[in-house]
């Protein structure tokens, strides 16, 4: 009897030990709080996600598998993980079934959708396109639990489960104004990293304005030799050579971001007028440096605008416009060219309409689709044109009635250059003070009466740069508002709710800290330490 009991006890003990070893090896473990939290905090919120309660361990022993078009996305993942977690994924052979991240092209997930399945042995991301895979990878980055101290050294937890996801809108963008203050190529690349982490896919670069011209045009060298040297406040300005611009475009392409170049016409054009006196509507101005008084044709470093215009009756005007659009289109692989068109306060209305109609033809002749700020609704638009709504409901409706598509950038919601409140250290406030809850709580499809979901291409958050000069300044205005705009573009309105969103947002603070992002600590959110 004693002997039998002993035997039974011993075998139970042995089995328990064997079982624990087995569990230890395969990495099976209930999901930790941190991993659960990461799984439930993805921004933008996925279309559907189902946790299954266990854990996958990411470590330097984890391998990856990717063939063909999936390979470039896998290389991106590998380089990101080595920077963020010090893990270098090695390529696995076909037979590897344990501890592997598989990226596969296939299935029917739409142009940008993906599926992500995590079990204890592997992570599988599948998508119809490389873009979809890339968004799956962004989700995977966010799933890695936010662990601290010893446990974080070489084993990172990822909650098991499955996610199916696709975007609501095709256009999910941000605009950076590099004209009022110039930002370096490195800054623009970081901007691309930040927006693509939240699955945004368009970067609109505002490349010219009264205060500065920022892109090399070989046939008009003074644009950068003179127009490139000024900025708001009188700093030294700057510009991108065509080679540097191509480098930005290539960096963006690797992150599935389309660069949308803007040359603001026919107003906001003073930097060009200062570079080429013959472009002035009136008699040429003698060029002096350093005045803050807006006089068309003099280099200008103030903030007020609406005093400059091209002249419709001069042949040189259209030679200039043709050359600029031709040279810039030739180095822009994306399908869009933004002609500005806003606040042309000193262009006569019939001239303005004639200008926009001609710009449309020139843009088309260079193989691009024209985009303009909402004022272009006054011209002869058609379905090839996209109008960017920032203020006027009337213009939004006019554009939609003419068959144009709309990008929504309502200034009271997503002008990220607006101050959060009256104490914000940077920003303007002419449109509104915009706190993080306000910039999240709106829906493009119901914002302007008479504009329907199908008229809307998507959303874009502009960052004008009158008050900002450094990457830190950029981050302070982008965060925490940018992720919310990204979610408006990606996640269906029925799945969005501020009270739920703010919990997810709070959990991103430690990630921003790890990425060195200098964010505004809004009191509307109970930030996680
Ligand atoms: C309006 S909205 C502008 C920009 C300014 C911005 C400042 C629009 C198309 N134009 O020129 O930089 O306000 O918030």
Low-confidence stretches: 1-5, 16-27
| Tally of distinct domains | 2
Q: What number is the mean pLDDT?
A: 93
- Major β-sheet profile: 8 strands, parallel, barrel
- The number of strands is 17
CATH fold name of the largest domain, please? Answer: TIM Barrel
Q: CATH superfamily name of the largest domain? A: Glycosidases
What's the architecture of the largest domain in CATH terms?
Alpha-Beta Barrel
At a glance:
This protein is of the alpha/beta class and 529 residues long.
How would you describe this structure to a colleague?
This protein has 529 residues and is of the alpha/beta class. The chain folds into two domains: 28-165, Chitobiase/beta-hexosaminidase domain 2-like (Chitobiase, domain 2); 171-362 and 400-498, Glycosidases (TIM Barrel), CATH 3.20.20. Helix content is 35%, strand content 18%. It contains 18 helices and 17 strands. It has helices at 2-26, 33-39, 70-85, 130-143, 185-197, 222-225, 242-254, 270-275, 315-330, 349-365, 393-401, 411-414, 436-440, 444-447, 471-478, 481-490, 498-506, 509-514, and strands at 48-59, 63-66, 90-91, 100-105, 114-118, 122-127, 155-165, 171-177, 202-206, 208-209, 212-213, 258-265, 336-340, 369-373, 386-389, 405-408, 456-463. Strands 8-9-12-13-14-15-16-17 form an eight-stranded parallel barrel, surrounded by seven helices. A seven-stranded mixed sheet has the order 1-7-5-6-4-2-3, covered by helices on one side. Helix 5 (185-197) runs parallel beside helix 7. The protein is elongated and about 80 Å long. The termini are far apart. Ligand TNX binds next to loops.
């Amino acid at each position: 009897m004693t002997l039998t009991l002993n035997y039974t006890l011993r075998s139970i003990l042995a089995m328990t030990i064997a079982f624990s070893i087995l569990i230890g090896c395969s990495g099976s473990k209930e999901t930790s709080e941190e991993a659960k939290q990461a799984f439930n905090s993805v921004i933008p919120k996925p279309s559907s996600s189902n946790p299954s309660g266990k854990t996958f361990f990411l470590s330097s022993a984890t391998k990856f598998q990717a063939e063909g078009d999936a390979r470039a996305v896998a290389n991106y993942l590998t380089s990101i993980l080595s920077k963020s977690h010090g893990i270098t994924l090695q390529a696995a052979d076909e037979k590897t079934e344990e501890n592997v991240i598989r990226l596969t092209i296939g299935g029917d997930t739409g142009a940008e959708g993906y599926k992500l399945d995590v079990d204890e042995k592997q992570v599988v991301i599948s998508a119809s396109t490389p873009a979809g895979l890339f968004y799956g990878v962004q989700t995977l980055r966010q799933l890695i639990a936010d662990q601290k101290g010893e446990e974080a050294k070489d084993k990172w937890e990822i909650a098991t489960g499955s996610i199916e996801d696709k975007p609501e809108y095709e256009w999910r963008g941000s605009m950076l104004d590099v004209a009022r203050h110039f930002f370096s190529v490195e800054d623009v690349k970081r901007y691309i990293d930040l927006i693509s982490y939240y699955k945004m896919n368009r970067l609109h670069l505002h490349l010219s304005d009264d205060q500065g011209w920022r892109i090399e045009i070989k046939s008009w060298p003074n644009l950068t030799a003179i127009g490139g040297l000024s900025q708001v406040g009188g700093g030294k300005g700057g510009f991108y050579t065509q080679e540097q611009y191509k480098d930005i475009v290539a960096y963006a392409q690797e992150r599935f971001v389309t660069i949308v170049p803007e040359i603001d016409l026919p107003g906001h054009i003073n930097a060009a007028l200062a570079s080429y006196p013959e472009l002035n509507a009136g008699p040429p101005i003698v060029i002096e440096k350093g005045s803050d008084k807006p006089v068309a044709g003099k280099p200008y470093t103030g903030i007020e605008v609406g005093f400059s215009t091209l002249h419709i009756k001069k042949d040189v005007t259209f030679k200039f416009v043709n050359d600029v659009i031709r040279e810039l289109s030739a180095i822009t692989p994306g399908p869009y060219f933004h002609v500005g068109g806003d606040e042309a306060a000193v262009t006569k209305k019939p001239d303005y309409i004639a200008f926009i109609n001609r710009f449309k033809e020139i843009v088309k002749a260079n193989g691009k689709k024209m985009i303009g700020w909402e004022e272009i609704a006054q011209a002869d638009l058609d379905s090839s044109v996209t109008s960017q709504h920032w203020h006027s409901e009337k213009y939004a409706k006019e554009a939609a009635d003419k068959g144009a598509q709309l990008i929504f950038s309502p200034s009271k919601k997503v002008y990220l250059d607006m101050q959060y409140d009256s104490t914000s250290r940077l920003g303007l406030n002419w449109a509104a003070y915009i706190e993080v809850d306000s910039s999240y709580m709106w829906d493009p499809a119901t914002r302007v009466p008479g504009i329907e979901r199908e008229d809307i291409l998507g959303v874009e958050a502009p960052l004008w740069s009158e008050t900002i000069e450094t990457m830190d300044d950029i981050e302070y205005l982008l965060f925490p508002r940018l992720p919310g705009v990204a979610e408006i573009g990606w996640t269906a309105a029925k799945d969005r709710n501020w009270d739920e969103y703010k919990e997810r947002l709070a959990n991103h603070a430690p990630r921003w800290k790890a990425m060195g992002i200098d964010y505004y600590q809004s009191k509307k959110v109970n930030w996680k330490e």
